[in-house]
Amino acid sequence: MNLNKLQPSLLHHLPIVIVTSLKMYFRATLLTAGLLPLGNALPRPQLTYDENTGPVGGVDPPFPTFTAAVGDLRGSTDLQGGIASRPPTSGGDSAVVPDPELVNGQEADADLGLYLDFNSATAPNGPQPIRGGLGGTDPGPRTFEYEKLNPDLFAPPGTDSGDVPNAMWPLGLSHNRAGIGNESGWARQQNTAVLPAATEMAGVDMRLAPQALVLKGSVRVAAMNEDGASFIDDVTAGDVWFFPPGIPHSLQALDEGCEFLLVFDDGNFSEEDTFLATEMLLRSPKEVWAKDLEIDVSALDNIPQDQKYIFNGTPAPADIEKQNITGSAGALSGPTGYTYHWSQQEFHNTTGGSVKILDPVTFPIADMFSAALVVLEPGALREVHWHTTSDEWSYFLQGSARITVFKAPESSRTFDFTAGDVGYIPQAQGHYVENTGTEDVIFLEVLQAKKFGDISASQWLALTPRQVVKDTLGFSDDILDKLPKDKTLIKPGNANLTALAGESS
Ligand SMILES: *[C@@H]1O[C@H](CO)[C@@H](O)[C@H](O)[C@H]1NC(C)=O
Ligand SMILES: *[C@@H]1O[C@H](CO)[C@@H](O)[C@H](O)[C@H]1NC(C)=O
Ligand SMILES: *[C@@H]1O[C@H](CO)[C@@H](O)[C@H](O)[C@H]1NC(C)=O
Ligand SMILES: *[C@@H]1O[C@H](CO)[C@@H](O)[C@H](O)[C@H]1NC(C)=O
Ligand SMILES: *[C@@H]1O[C@H](CO)[C@@H](O)[C@H](O)[C@H]1NC(C)=O
């Protein structure tokens, strides 16, 4: 399987000679090879399909069938208000929801803000937008699956306030671009078109078909820099490659194919605008290409006239040396190489979960890209924090989680996430990630920064003069004694909602 694609000419036109299976991004890209297979574990909530039943909008299904059209399309002018008879004030089409089912935690104090698991709230009434003494029943019509997946949008914690731009996009709602040929692959994206707040970064989830070779779930990466120094390497699930702007490269899926995630440093990036090798050759005179490539004009006769995006290609040889081409400028490796074998890095393990960080400190070619892969146990929290210079682009690989985005001075909104969802938090806006499910949450945090870092809210309070914190927040010395002065990144927590709901009542 080959990917034949050049990236959009958003910035400048670079003279790159491309043949099939080469591609080039005009913007810097961070590609996380095969991270997605981790996400195969099913997220909670797992939904069964149910829907509203009964009359809707005064129409009572099922509709009768007619063999010939009957009835007028428009009604009488006698139905105008003031002329027509009025409906009864009661006993007509009722908006009363009989016996609304409230789930565990829904009656607890709204400011406690417990995660609500709506899975037990089924037809006919479904989940209700009620929390503590807030909200009210919803007679519909609606599709319960949305509310079950996004309980914190439907019944927000009482602490949510004001307006915060949407910070969540499920890639499951992105349009898929299919590759040419049986099982060749596909790509789907998140950019400003679907998530307008995500101005600085965009993401693409891509699948390339397998080839029958020895390596498993791997990709062969090849690239060249301005000096003509070349690079080739094979990466596997959990590894990363990075291409600075304008560096042309090729990707070949090996053996079992691959699925990978691309992060772009431009929220407007679109896979639909890709700069294709075939198009490049078709858009300049053949005479010029014959001169440029030092070939006969007739050699250009077989260039496909249609775009080739993802398509089936010739299998790559298992032996990487067979594809290793080096010029007089030599080969790139180590600090000048374009890959990092992140899957081989051990996690930093702490109470409640694990973290590993990849940034230019150890992967210098990835100039302004920093990432953390975080594992949260059920109930655990990626602590409340913010990033000082960069927006955060995040991607959920497994589990169910929620994030509250705090936007100064006084707005906040809580969003729910499951596997395959993208999150976006603007620079300096406070947030946390809480595991709201019964299995580990695995997610990726990506920053545009030379070093991965954040400001921890609890560490800030611990390292601020005590009198100032006491005067501002009313905390006692006992409470302040317990604040850790070292950043923990993750805080363990109780996953038992019943216990938490009980504590509040
Ligand atoms: C597509 O490829 C799959 C896997 O190689 C194969 O099982 C299937 O028969 C193919 N389908 C068609 C229509 O060629
Ligand atoms: C993205 O597109 C919007 C609307 O066209 C434009 O205002 C903005 O400057 C673009 N951003 C970048 C980084 O190109
Ligand atoms: C490719 O060839 C160059 C030059 O011989 C060598 O330095 C480099 O290590 C080779 N790369 C691989 C992946 O074998
Ligand atoms: C971290 O945890 C993982 C999984 O539990 C374990 O395999 C690994 O050895 C631990 N790493 C360290 C540095 O303790
Ligand atoms: C959760 O907490 C409740 C109340 O404390 C307790 O009755 C229940 O056994 C707990 N459930 C689990 C799975 O530990």
From TrEMBL:
<feature type="binding site">
    <location>
        <position position="431"/>
    </location>
    <ligand>
        <name>Mn(2+) 2</name>
    </ligand>
</feature>
<protein>
    <recommendedName>
        <fullName>Cupin type-1 domain-containing protein</fullName>
    </recommendedName>
</protein>
<feature type="binding site">
    <location>
        <position position="385"/>
    </location>
    <ligand>
        <name>Mn(2+) 2</name>
    </ligand>
</feature>
<dbReference type="InterPro" id="IPR014710">
    <property type="entry name" value="RmlC-like_jellyroll"/>
</dbReference>
<feature type="domain" description="Cupin type-1">
    <location>
        <begin position="340"/>
        <end position="481"/>
    </location>
</feature>
<dbReference type="GO" id="GO:0046872">
    <property type="term" value="F:metal ion binding"/>
</dbReference>
<feature type="binding site">
    <location>
        <position position="392"/>
    </location>
    <ligand>
        <name>Mn(2+) 2</name>
    </ligand>
</feature>
<dbReference type="Pfam" id="PF00190">
    <property type="entry name" value="Cupin_1"/>
</dbReference>
<feature type="domain" description="Cupin type-1">
    <location>
        <begin position="171"/>
        <end position="301"/>
    </location>
</feature>
<dbReference type="InterPro" id="IPR011051">
    <property type="entry name" value="RmlC_Cupin_sf"/>
</dbReference>
<dbReference type="InterPro" id="IPR051610">
    <property type="entry name" value="GPI/OXD"/>
</dbReference>
<dbReference type="InterPro" id="IPR017774">
    <property type="entry name" value="Bicupin_oxalate_deCO2ase/Oxase"/>
</dbReference>
<keyword id="KW-0464">Manganese</keyword>
<dbReference type="GO" id="GO:0033609">
    <property type="term" value="P:oxalate metabolic process"/>
</dbReference>
<keyword id="KW-0479">Metal-binding</keyword>
<feature type="binding site">
    <location>
        <position position="249"/>
    </location>
    <ligand>
        <name>Mn(2+) 1</name>
    </ligand>
</feature>
<feature type="active site" description="Proton donor">
    <location>
        <position position="445"/>
    </location>
</feature>
<feature type="binding site">
    <location>
        <position position="387"/>
    </location>
    <ligand>
        <name>Mn(2+) 2</name>
    </ligand>
</feature>
<dbReference type="InterPro" id="IPR006045">
    <property type="entry name" value="Cupin_1"/>
</dbReference>
